[in-house]
Amino acid sequence: MPSPVKPHPRTPWQEFWYRFRKNKLAVVGMGVILLYVSIALFADFFYSWDFVVGNQIPNAFATVGTKAVVELGGKKVEHLYILGADNFGRDVLGRMIHGARVSMIIGFITIAFAVLVGGSLGAIAGFYGGVLETIIMRGADILLAIPNMLFALAIVAAMGPSFQNLLLAIGITSVPIYVRLVRASVLTVKDQEFVEAARALGARDGRIIVRHVLPNCMAPVIVQATLGIAQSILSATFLSFLGLGIQPPAPEWGNMLSEARPYIISAPHTLIFPGLAIMTVILAYNLIGDGLRDALDPKLRR
Amino acid sequence: MGKAQLSIQNLQVEYHTDEEVIHAVNGISLDLEEGESLGLVGETGAGKTTLALSILGLLPKPNGRIVDGSIFFEGKELSKTSEEEMRQIRGNRISMIFQDPMTSLNPIFPVGEQIAEALEVHFSLTKEQAEKKTAELLELVGIPRNRMGEYPHQFSGGMKQRVVIAMALACNPKLLLADEPTTALDVTIQAQVLRMIRDLKRRMRTTLILISHDLGVVAQICNTVAIMYAGKIMEYGKIEDVFRNPLHPYTEGLFASIPRLDRTQRRLSSIPGLIPDPSNLPTGCVFHPRCPYRMGVCEKTVPPLVEWEGRKVHCLKYREG
After folding, report:
1. What value, to the nearest 5°, has the Cα angle with vertex B89 and ends B84 and B95?
2. Is residue A246 part of a domain?
């Protein structure tokens, strides 16, 4: 029998996008992040690595918009310091652009790691319960009991400051949130009838978890992950600021702030611009997070 | 009895919680021949769903367990079968239709994918083959094949129940357990779905156990009926016999509580009292506290199964000789 009304086929993804688009601030946030990501991707196209780490002592503290002669690959070239130069005469904008690369990568990798590890542990804990759950959840509680920053600091301090250790430290500290979040969602989803129905169809546990339970738990995880990226970037800049993250002369927003600290009065541009970069990125991620929460929350539909 | 497709003997199922033991099924014996359709009728809490779940080996773990008795399906004892073997039987040889079509479909996958899942789990089909079979199944339950890619929320309740039925029928099961398949539907849709189940059952020659609390629903589809009360079968026999001349006082009470159109009734009649607490069952006959024909012995003696006028009944009113 033909259905009298042809329902407009809208996939969940389209439905989500339709609702997300209504939140203008979130769309702006997404635009900002896309801009930062593309800048980070094409950093080498704007400024060469050698230039942003090489000293140009004669141009130290060049103010915003100064034109000066710089040495690049043995040649003397005229260069416009769009956002001025720092204490070694290095281009602030160039360093910020290359620093964006580090921040973007750290944000994504640490959260991807945390969601993957925390998510799987949480799914196992929630789905199977029992002793396994107790072990996993108490482990997560132990990690949560240690202040995040302190724990990341301890890891980096013990293993030595390097990019990998920075990723590991921030990644591990982010894991327990996702364990708890995914477990809680799994608990509400696993008793629904369609899970029972899948079991009655003869599906294995693995299939039930991956196909039926986890996809129905994704909404809060996506929101938390977006906010988590902001938190990760902040942690990374903080650790770099303390000298435990990215080591100079490699540029990173945190260590740029750290190096600029003594010159806050005499050359404020060396501090203000990296600070603004951190602020806008964090703000943008938070706006996206809020937008996602509204778009994915089933209670707020329509 | 040897050729019964499904044979349940003295099945007892309990749920253990920290405080108490709930006796959900207390010694049920049933034999189903191939192609038969049995209606399982009883009030909420009579143990109907528990019985179905124990056939599928899906009793909630770790609380629910089969304490005694056995379930034979095609000569194989299901309660002693390994989990992996049970998994291969589920959805393939025995499948189940759940009560609420609104919640028994996964909201985030198109219905076509969900029907195909049973095929994916049990057979290795190519994508095209699975899609073709899914389209056939959809048409079998009266849904146009071009709606395969749509999501559950785009279907009405009756349509969703059809999808659920298509899922259950995907692998041509030998035994179909339908747990109140029409309870959540409108009366008009109920009739459609019931007619469809009956036709499909005939066409595919599936054995059917239909769980319901609605005697009318059972009358439309089944040839035998078992009346359940507090985890026990009170009366079991051919549907015409039971409906024409109920023997057990409980069955009598059930029929008396159906509203009638041909008589003026100020109030609907009901069976006095409530179904007993399954953690604290009455001694003797479980029905005696509510029984209008109660005798002194009913409190002490558990009524044996008596063959009476071609059916089986658990009541001390009927004694051989």
Report:
1. 135
2. yes
Contacts of B41 (CB under 8 A, 6+ apart): B48, B212, B213, B214, B215, B218, B225, B226, B227, B228, B254
Q: Give the helix, strand, coil percentages of chain A, each rounded to 5.
A: 75, 5, 20
Backbone phi, psi, residue B120, to 5°: -60, -40
Dist CA A149 CA A143 (whole Å): 12
State the Cα angle at B314 between B270 and B268, rounded to 5°: 10
Give tens-digit pLDDT for B162-175: 899 999 988 889 99
Which residues, other chains included, contact A199 with Cβ-Cβ below 8 Å and sequence gap of 6+?
A208, B58, B90
Q: Which range marks the domain in which residue A285 is found?
A: 12-55+91-300
Number of domains in chain A: 1
A-B contacts at Cβ under 8 angstroms: 78
A212:B100 CB<8 A:
no
Bridge partners for A80 per DSSP: A67
Tokens 């909630």 belong to residue: B60
Q: Higher pLDDT residue, B306 or A39?
A: A39
Domain annotation covers residue A79: no
For chain B, give percent helix, strand, coil, nearest 5.
Answer: 35, 25, 40
CB contact under 8 Å between B167 and A216, yes or no, is: no
Closest-CA residue of A relative to B155 is A7
CATH of the domain at A153: 1.10.3720.10
**∠ CA B63-B95-B313, rounded to 5°:** 70
Q: What are A177-212's pLDDT values in tens digits?
A: 999 999 999 999 988 889 989 999 988 999 999 999
* B58:A200 CB<8 A: yes
> pTM of the full predicted structure?
0.83
Q: Does A60 reside within a domain?
A: no
Contact status of A9 with chain B (Cβ, < 8 Å): yes
Instruction: Tell me, yes or no, whether A76 lies in a domain.
Output: no
Measure CB to CB from residue B154 to each of A7, A199, A211 and give the nearest one: A7
Backbone angles phi, psi at B2, to 5 degrees: -65, -30
Q: What is the mean pLDDT of residues A101-106?
A: 92
Question: Nearest by CB to A199, which of B58, B122, B142?
Answer: B58
